[in-house]
Design a protein that fits this description.
The protein has helices at 23-35, 46-56, 72-80, 99-108, 123-131, and strands at 15-19, 39-43, 60-64, 90-94, 112-115. The protein has a five-stranded parallel beta sheet, sandwiched between helices. The chain has a single domain, classed as Response regulator (Rossmann fold, 3-Layer(aba) Sandwich). The protein is an alpha/beta fold and 143 residues long. The protein is globular and about 35 Å long. The longest helix has 13 residues, at 23-35. Strand 3, helix 3 (72-80) and strand 4 (90-94) form a beta-alpha-beta unit. The protein starts with 14 loop residues before the first strand and ends in a 12-residue tail after the last helix.
């Protein structure tokens, strides 16, 4: 499960919020992120995720798109229209990353997509490949 290219401290000082209504996906992602040193906050729906984002101001948010109570799309809208959270990069986590959905997601403000099911062997490396394209992500003072 360890990625040979990345140190077990690769995510030290990263505060990551992950939101998914599927307990297995949430647990796998949270476990992997914590294995590499991240402080992880986890929510099971968009409403809970939005409150956690306001409370903890994470460096990165990873959210499922299809959730009860508030979808990932609705969550993104709330995050991007709130002054406290608008600058936090948001990555969609979805099993439905069709080409049209990707374009719609980028237009809405998602920074990129991770697809389900989460592959434990590649999840962290895949995440790194996505965040390197986020302007100022590694120079940001938010940890």
């Amino acid at each position: 499960m360890n990625n040979p290219q990345l140190s077990e401290h690769a995510l030290d000082n990263w505060r990551i919020l992950i939101i998914d209504d599927e307990p297995d996906s949430l647990e796998v992602a949270q476990t992997l992120l914590e294995m590499y040193g991240a402080t992880v906050f986890a929510g099971t729906n968009g409403e809970e995720g939005f409150q956690l984002a306001l409370q903890h101001r994470p460096k990165l948010i990873i959210t499922d798109l299809s959730m009860p109570m508030m979808s990932g799309w609705q969550l993104l809208h709330h995050l991007k229209t709130n002054g406290l959270t608008r600058d936090i990069p948001v990555i969609a986590l979805t099993a439905h990353a069709m080409e049209g959905d990707r374009a719609r997601g980028f237009a809405a403000g998602f920074h990129n997509y991770l697809t389900k099911p989460i592959e434990p062997e590649t999840f962290i490396a895949d995440l790194f490949r996505l965040v390197v394209d986020i302007p100022n992500f590694f120079t940001s003072s938010k940890a």
